[in-house]
Design a protein that fits this description.
The protein has 6 helices and 9 strands. It has helices at 42-50, 71-76, 93-102, 109-115, 131-144, 161-176; strands spanning 3-13, 16-27, 31-35, 57-62, 65-66, 78-81, 149-153, 180-184, 195-198.
Length: 203
């Protein structure tokens, strides 16, 4: 059983305090949905969780250990999908995914593409993809290699209803296997037994 927690977190961007006094706790199989108005700090919190941004105050722990003590290990236990899809335009879809998988010693590229219904795009260069197709390629990263923690920032952006259903099923299977997920979203997603954290309460 894994435990991912934050205590008394404060986030400052520029000279503005985005949020303060924020706590969260997530265990194996859990889901945390971040809500709040634009600018409330949803993306910033995800970046704190991923170790991409240090908290001004407070701690984030994995099984009781501060994640800043060993950032490399923390990075290896998570997948972070942000606003930018980071699809390399000169590589085809399979090559893009193979590149990401190679950072973690390989992976099941075609199975990951099939999970999001884009195996037929395997040979298409990234520069020819639509916004929705690029999003699906980016999301395929979360299944090409296992990681217990998924951090997803507005994952349904540019996705059609059928692909959102695929994502919901992928998240459900991840949680059934003991994985955790934190999602920032303005869309209603079909998630079971999730926690909700309104960042407006901590501004």
């Amino acid at each position: 059983m894994n435990d991912f927690s934050g205590k008394n977190l404060v986030c400052v961007r520029g000279e503005r305090t985005v949020f303060q006094g924020l706590d969260f706790k997530l265990e194996s199989g859990g889901a945390l949905v971040l809500v709040g108005a634009n600018g409330s700090g949803k993306s910033s919190l995800l970046r704190l969780m991923a170790g991409l941004l240090p908290p001004a105050e407070g701690t984030i722990t994995w099984n009781g250990e501060d994640t800043t003590e060993d950032p490399e290990s923390h990075g290896g236990r998570l997948h972070y999908v942000g606003h930018l899809d980071a699809v390399k335009p000169v590589l085809d879809v399979a090559e893009n995914l193979a590149f990401w998988a190679g950072l973690r010693s390989g992976g099941a590229v075609m199975a990951a593409l099939e999970a999001f219904g884009i195996s037929h795009l395997a040979d298409v260069p990234g520069r020819f993809l639509s916004a929705g197709q690029k999003r699906r390629v980016s999301l395929a990263r979360i299944v090409v290699r296992p990681a217990p923690l998924w951090l997803l920032d507005e994952p349904t952006t540019a996705l059609d209803k059928a692909t959102i259903k695929r994502l919901e099923g992928t998240i459900a299977r991840h949680r059934d296997g003991g994985g955790m997920v934190v999602i920032s979203t303005h869309s209603d997603m079909g998630l079971d037994a999730f926690q909700m954290l309104d960042l407006g309460d901590f501004s």
